[in-house]
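Box 3.1 — From sequence to structure: Zinc finger DksA/TraR C4-type domain-containing protein
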Amino acid sequence: MLNIHQKTLDKIKSYLKRQQKQVESQIKSLEKEDPVLSDGLAESPESGTESWSADVHARFVSMKNELLGLSKRITNSLTSLKKGTYGKCERCGKKIEVARLDALPTASLCLSCSKKTPSRTKR
Ligand SMILES: [Zn+2]
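Predicted structure (token representation):
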């Protein structure tokens, strides 16, 4: 059993839920503003510049992918919170430091494993 305070867990849970909603609405607004996905092509500054919308689209896609990745991590964290496996390192199975979880609730690796893993999702 992980010795994380119930209070801390509750805090993390509500934080994650809030963050998930934010991420979802960010994804939605990105989709709305994406010149390729939306019908907003006519709104490009210079009339009908295709390279402009392709540029913007590429940027939106990478932002969206980032958000989708974050959303997935949030979902995973919420699932493990429900299952009671939250705070366990995915790599070594040890407990993740509570201070680390407090600062980064979506952390799935303990501090020493995350140091060993060059990950672009690391914050
Ligand atoms: Zn570890």
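Summary of the box: The chain has a mean pLDDT of 86.
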